[in-house]
Design a protein that fits this description.
Elements: H1 4-14, E1 19-20, H2 23-29, E2 52-54, H3 59-72, E3 76-79, E4 96-99, E5 106-110, E6 115-119, H4 124-133, E7 136-138, H5 150-156, H6 163-166, E8 173-179, E9 185-187, H7 201-204, E10 213-223, E11 227-235, H8 238-251, E12 257-263, E13 267-276, H9 278-294, E14 298-299, H10 303-310, H11 314-322, H12 328-336, E15 341-346, H13 349-363, E16 368-376, E17 381-388, H14 396-413, H15 429-436, H16 438-450
Parallel strand pairs: 2-4, 3-4
Antiparallel strand pairs: 1-2, 5-6, 6-10, 7-10, 8-9, 8-10, 11-13, 11-14, 12-13, 12-16, 15-17, 16-17
The structure holds flavin-adenine dinucleotide.
Length: 463
């Protein structure tokens, strides 16, 4: 519990209206989009609520809050949009949630440097709109554009619809300003290349806030394309579509969107979008359709991909409308009752199809089925949506939990990783050391050096 004097000090830093202790607020902040129904075996992580929520507006205030917490050993949980799906914002040891929502200013858009300098709490949709005024766009375009923040997406190294051309969010980072666990402010410089020691930005990319709170980021931005061409190729089998996608990338073609999806209703479709200067787009489109045809792909026209593109932020909009900021139980009731899981694993290209076969063997007779297979932006990035078999008997939750654990560890055993886009949170915490080996010892050593009292988002990244 926070003592009265800590609350008073926080109030001095940010004003009484920005220190929330009402049980209603503590409840709605003490979660993200992970529901207990998908937190197989770690449901206990939801037991604890934060002791208070604090809403800083400047880097200086963040530094004051962190210094106070470091002095008194108060756990801190950085909070962006609260849309993570792994429980990264769960206050498993209580303490303070640091809501970055007031740090939402776009400080500079530089059309020459092709960068935008923004505060960490900027919502992606606001960035999209600010960039469009300058004829620019962001390279990171997840489903959750309407609800996720710049620093939250950096801290999970998220993947979006333009990742085939521009890479994940981490690749958009040019420079960061971060408040370290002792209150010091670290800034990296906005240049694209370093050769003087490790690139410190990477200490914070995908680190779920365990090494500090990102207060500002300078990110790469891109010209809005001169030309955009959508295409869809339909395949008889997932394997042939997969081979076509791998061949496109091996040839050096970089579509903006490359998404191969297999589901019952639509069949097996490779969605492609080419963006850029006119001649390049025309050449990439033509050659790509030839490659797809070589693997048995049928050109079924642009419509399906155009619709898919139009709809891509729908789930984010729905979440904003019905769930964002609502009490936990309301969110869980709307979404959490459904037993399902959506896994995003990565393996070397040469292993993916074999991995899929092995997963099918694990699933056979388990009462769990895959309702969608896909690769997203690269053939290595393989996703499966799991659901209970219709009419399956037994405890779905248990079955699903066991199957999920088996397929995740199989990916690790085949040289891959258990998650490429959403982070670890509380959901995958127990499997991280298994995956990283000595690498996890290094993460522990870094944590010990920078945050010896383990105040910064404790209980995450296996720490
Ligand atoms: C409907 C829906 C669709 C989604 N679609 C996608 C998708 O297409 N692609 C994708 O990758 N993900 C997707 N997600 C997941 C989620 O949007 C991402 O994980 C996103 O990156 C989280 O951003 P956020 O601002 O909400 O972060 P939060 O959930 O607030 O935080 C995520 C993690 O980052 C830490 N953090 C937050 N802010 C800071 C900061 N300033 N400094 C340091 N650490 C910080 C938190 O402590 C936490 O560990 C989706 C989620 C939903 C609900």
């Amino acid at each position: 519990m926070l003592n009265r004097s800590a609350i008073e000090t926080l109030t001095k830093f940010v004003g009484a209206e920005n220190v929330l202790t009402d049980p209603y607020d503590l409840d709605r902040y003490s979660a993200d989009a992970l529901t207990p129904s998908r937190a197989f075996g770690v449901e206990g992580a939801f037991d604890r609520l934060a002791d208070a929520v604090v809403r800083p507006a400047t880097t200086e205030q963040v530094s004051q809050i962190v210094s106070l917490a470091a002095g008194e050993g108060i756990p801190l949980v950085p909070y962006g949009g609260g849309t993570g799906v792994m429980g990264g914002t769960l206050p498993v040891r209580g303490g303070l949630i640091v809501d970055m929502g007031r740090m939402n200013r776009i400080l500079q858009v530089n059309v020459t440097d092709l960068t935008a300098e923004v505060e960490g709490g900027v919502v992606l949709q606001d960035l999209v709109e600010a960039l469009a005024v300058h004829g620019l766009m962001s390279g990171h375009d997840p489903y959750s554009v309407p609800i996720a923040t710049v620093a939250g997406t950096i801290s999970t190294n998220g993947v979006g619809y333009r990742a085939a051309a521009f890479g994940p969010m981490g690749q958009q980072v040019v420079a960061l300003e971060v408040v370290l666990p002792d209150g010091r402010v670290l800034s990296t410089r906005p240049v694209p290349k370093y050769s003087s020691g490790p690139i410190l930005n990477y200490l914070f990319i995908g680190s779920e806030g365990v090494f500090g709170i990102i207060t500002k980021a300078t990110i790469r931005v891109y010209r809005l394309p001169e030309s955009s061409v959508f295409a869809t190729s339909s395949f008889e089998t997932f394997d042939r579509g997969f081979e076509a996608a791998a061949e496109l990338l091996a040839l050096g073609i970089r579509p903006t969107l490359l998404d191969l999806t297999e589901e019952e209703e639509e069949g097996i479709l490779l969605h492609l979008l080419f963006e850029g200067y006119q001649e390049g787009v025309a050449a990439d489109h033509k050659r790509s359709m030839q490659v797809c045809a070589r693997f048995g792909g049928q050109d079924v026209g642009p419509e399906s991909t155009e619709n898919y593109w139009q709809d891509r932020h729908r789930s984010g909009e729905n979440y904003k409308e019905a769930m964002l900021g609502r009490p936990r139980q309301v969110r869980w009731d709307r979404w959490g009752g459904r037993s399902f899981d959506y896994l995003h694993l990565a393996l070397p290209v040469s292993q993916v199809l074999d991995y899929r076969k092995k997963c099918e063997a694990i699933l056979a007779g388990s009462g769990v089925r895959v309702v969608e297979y896909s690769i997203w932006s690269r053939p290595e990035l393989f996703s499966m949506m799991l659901s209970p078999e219709p009419g399956a008997k037994g405890d779905f939750q248990d079955n699903m939990g066991q199957v999920v654990e088996q397929v995740l560890t199989l990916a690790q055993d085949m040289g891959g990783i258990m998650e490429y886009c959403h982070g670890v949170g509380v959901k995958l915490n127990h499997l991280l050391a298994r995956e990283l080996g000595v690498g996890h010892d290094v993460i522990r050593d870094l944590k010990q050096a920078l945050d010896p009292a383990n105040i910064m988002n404790p209980g995450k990244l296996g720490l």
